[in-house]
Design goal:
The complex is a heterodimer.
Chain A (H helix, E strand, L loop, with lengths): L1 H5 L12 H19 L2 E3 L2 E2 L4 H16 L6 H7 L5 H13 L3 E3 L9 E3 L2 H15 L2 H16 L5 H28 L2 H11 L3 H17 L4 H30 L9 H10 L2 H7 L14 H14 L11 H4 L13 H12 L4 E3 H8 L2 H16 L5 E11 L7 E9 L11
Antiparallel strand pairs in A: 1-2, 3-4, 5-7, 6-7
Chain B lengths: L2 H16 L2 E4 L8 E5 L5 E6 L8 H5 L10 H15 L13 E2 H12 L3 H16 L4 E4 L4 E4 L8 H13 L20 H7 L1
Antiparallel strand pairs in B: 1-3, 2-3, 4-6, 5-6
Helix pairs in contact in B: 3-4, 3-5, 4-5
Classes of the chains: A mainly alpha, B alpha+beta.
């Protein structure tokens, strides 16, 4: 990366270029194309499958084995037996399009190709980046910067370029982290933050470079101030990200602070003392079965409900003790009371209107009792009184009963009621 | 770790692993343990005195399973029957209680559940075996007598009042049936008892 980054990129329009500058730009572009050939899926698009990188690596390794004569397409296919021929041919054509492989001699029927070294360097870089997440690359970059600015023949321009590059790197990292802290979800922060925070040593290393630059070229104070500001911003972003994660972890018993795999590996690899410390403050003691008093009471209660297999059917109390006396079977009779009630209702008359009786009674509870008495007297077989209902209906919106059926209560069972009389 | 703390930890581990421990009466009581005098005065039981918040209810709070017990309801009923028989005076303390013939326990269990002789007998034998190893009951198989075990001392006052209510509501131990209801010990062969059925 440093190779391409160090190249001056023309900032002016193509119209102003001299022939030399055009040639330089073409060389730079060719290098870019070669470098990114390994990431290309087809002309103009990124790869969608990480396995294609393996195919590229196999092809480039085959070229390394082949020596200066180069390889034909068929030879390259034969040298990579792990992958099927069609895949190899497709990738080969793509690498050729990007000029990562080129004809040994540029003529029409040339079959042998040679490979450029830049794609392989890029490939190695990509592998390291994916394996270690870019942090080690940053460390190496900073080491390189340190070497750059401390070597004897370093110029002030080198120092300025170095300080500017580092300022940009740390600003970018601080910006990403700060925006995640402010706006991102906690999960996104946790996923991305692994690469961005916790590397205090990066800051330390950058401060060393900064000190070297400032000592060597005191006139670069402006650039060094910018670098210091960027470093401070990065440090602040780390702090706030850590604070946000800890705050969020506080509600989840801190289990969310680390990914699940970390907890699993802790459980597998921790010594007994560390594992036991997790449960400090808890008391467990139930290796033997435990019975609570409540549990005993419930078990006894359920035994009564279930009651075994044979339940005695419910019977009356006296059934167990003795045979009931024959007289007990006759229901209680209140003939005398009913006769007295009939006398009282009639009051010496032969018969009396039900409506009048009820009207004298007034309130409904008394009326209800009177009706019950009359009905009981009417149905009693031994009493010669009768209750006869007629068709009329007396309506009176005043106090007491609002309406009353016409009827007669009197001596004699089926005595005809004189018609037309109230 | 100081030697005394180490000794305390060992006692807790012993009780946890093997249940309440029977020791000579002169043994100093480690912190956190209950000392229960065995009748006779020469020996004492050590058992753990667990605070209410640390008991098995903690397992329910943490949604962990309790130890699995075979036929938990019948076992609990037999324990209740033993409490009914061995707790002579519910106004007094539960420990140490009195030793009763195991036939009495069977009679209470039978009155409680209404089961037949042989079914009740089999249930009681199994439950007595399950209750005697953790120390809930002391079961002398040769004399066929049952006592309450030292683990019952872990019941607190609230639970004791529940048990008093239970004691009053349970059927009283009936007369000891002649012969066939003496519960044989495991050595006497519960298999034989089941074959008899």
């Amino acid at each position: 990366m440093t190779v391409s980054a160090a190249r001056p990129v023309p900032a002016t329009g193509p119209a102003d270029l001299t022939l030399d500058e055009v040639a330089t730009e073409a060389a730079v572009l060719r290098l870019y194309r070669q470098i990114f050939a390994v990431l290309a899926r087809e002309a103009g698009a990124m790869i969608m499958d990480a396995g294609l990188i393996d195919v590229d690596e196999a092809i480039l390794e085959a070229f390394a084995e082949a020596g200066s004569d180069g390889l034909t397409v068929a030879e390259a296919v034969a040298a990579c037996p792990r992958f099927d021929a069609a895949t190899i041919e497709r990738r080969f054509a793509l690498l050729r399009d990007y000029q990562a492989v080129a004809k040994v001699v540029d003529r029409k029927n040339e079959q042998h190709y040679r490979a450029a070294f830049a794609p392989y360097v890029m490939l190695l870089f990509l592998r390291r980046l994916t394996e270690r997440g870019g942090q080690s690359e940053l460390h190496q970059l900073l080491t390189l910067e340190q070497l750059n600015v401390t070597k004897p023949d370093a110029t002030q321009a080198d120092g300025r370029a170095s300080a500017t590059r580092m300022t940009k790197i740390f600003r970018l990292m601080a910006n990403e982290l700060a925006s995640l802290v402010q706006r991102g979800a906690a999960d996104a922060l946790r996923e991305h933050a692994q690469l961005l925070w916790g590397n205090r040593s990066l800051i330390t290393q950058a401060e060393e470079v900064h000190a070297a630059v400032l000592t060597a070229w005191p006139q670069l104070g402006q650039e060094c101030a910018m670098l210091r500001i960027a470093l401070a911003a990065y440090g602040d972003a780390i702090e706030s990200a850590a604070g946000r994660l800890l705050e969020q972890a506080g509600t989840t018993r801190a289990l969310g602070l680390l990914p699940a795999e970390t907890w699993v590996s802790f459980a597998r690899g921790a010594p007994v003392a560390d594992l036991a410390a997790v449960l400090d403050g808890f008391v467990f003691d139930a290796p033997a079965p435990w019975f609570s008093a409540q549990g005993l009471a419930e078990a006894v209660e359920s035994a009564r409900q279930a009651g075994g297999t044979r339940l005695r059917p419910p019977r009356a109390e006296y059934a167990e003790t003795a045979e009931p006396a024959p007289g007990d079977l006759v229901p209680a009779d209140d003939q005398a009371e009913l006769a007295a009630a009939a006398q009282r209702l009639l009051g010496g008359r032969e018969r009396v209107s039900v409506a009048d009786l009820l009207g004298e009674a007034g309130d409904w509870p008394t009326c209800r009792r009177l009706l019950a008495e009359m009905t009981a007297i009417h149905h009693h077989p031994a009493l010669d009184y009768g209750l006869t209902w007629a068709d009329g209906l007396r309506v009176d919106p005043g106090p007491g009963l609002a309406w009353t059926s016409e009827g007669w209560f009197g001596r004699g069972q089926a005595r005809p009621v004189p018609a037309g009389k109230n | 770790m100081p030697p005394r703390d180490q000794e305390t930890a060992l006692w807790w581990a012993r009780i946890r692993a093997a249940g309440p421990q029977l020791v000579a009466a002169g043994t100093p009581v480690p912190p956190g343990l209950l000392r229960l005098a065995e009748p006779g005065g020469t020996q004492v039981w050590f058992t753990t005195d667990i605070p209410n918040a640390g008991g098995p209810a903690t397992l329910d709070e943490l949604d962990l399973p309790r130890p699995v017990l075979e036929m938990p309801n019948d076992t609990a009923r037999v324990l209740a029957a033993c409490v009914r028989c061995c707790w002579a005076d519910p106004a007094g303390p539960l420990w140490p209680g009195v030793a009763v013939p195991s036939g009495l326990v069977v009679s209470v269990f039978r009155a409680m559940t209404g089961r037949d002789g042989i079914v009740a007998h089999r249930a009681v034998v199994g439950a007595l075996r399950r209750l005697s190893w953790p120390g809930w009951l002391l079961w002398d198989t040769t004399a066929a007598v049952v006592r309450l075990g030292p683990r019952v001392a872990a019941w607190n006052q609230a639970e004791l009042s529940t048990l008093r209510e239970l004691w009053r509501s349970m059927p009283a131990p009936g007369p000891l049936p002649a012969g066939q209801d003496d519960v044989p010990g495991p050595e006497a062969g519960d298999d034989a008892a089941e074959v008899d059925a």
